[in-house]
Amino acid sequence: MAVPLQDPAFCVLLGPDLAGKSSAMTALRQDPEPRRLISADDAFLAPEHALIGRLRREVVRDVAAREAAWSPEFLAAMLQTAVLHLRDRLLEDDGPALVDSYYYKPLAKCRLAGVPENPMFTWWRSFPRPRRVIYLDARPETAWRRSRQGARLNRLEHYGEVPDRDGFLRYQADLRKVMREEIRDLPVTVIEEAGPERTAAAIRKVLAHELG
Asked: Does the global pTM surpass 0.85?
């Protein structure tokens, strides 16, 4: 894989669980001339990269859901597959891009799962820096409703064996805190809760300013 001589021009779309990132990315994908959108979500994976989606689902179903069977460091190693996929897709082309979560959210999830500071994280932090982080926010109660009172949650989105409102809200509060710590030295634009189209319009405005 050829690596550009200069760091690529890109922004990162970040936010807590159920903040609306996927809906916003889907809306942006419908643009007449869509930007380069990089994500580990199934809808954005090329057929040859479908393995990433399968790995992510298995990590949630098996590794995260069976804490006694796997170490936190093993969980981090498995999550790294998605992190490296995003980095590789970013570096394969020097065109401007919007990257979903980048390494910031997986790193926060690892820390909340009990992984201490790790040489792996130092490596992730050496990856190219975005020009700006676009942080989508949603009220915790809205996110809880979007989860269908926990029915849509996976084991990496709440505290406790069984999802409930308290475990979800506490986890999301901690997730916000850790992610914001990780991006504290970067330019950040916060987009408050809105519908997908309004959110996509706000994202387009930021991207036009940062990436042209």
From this structure: yes
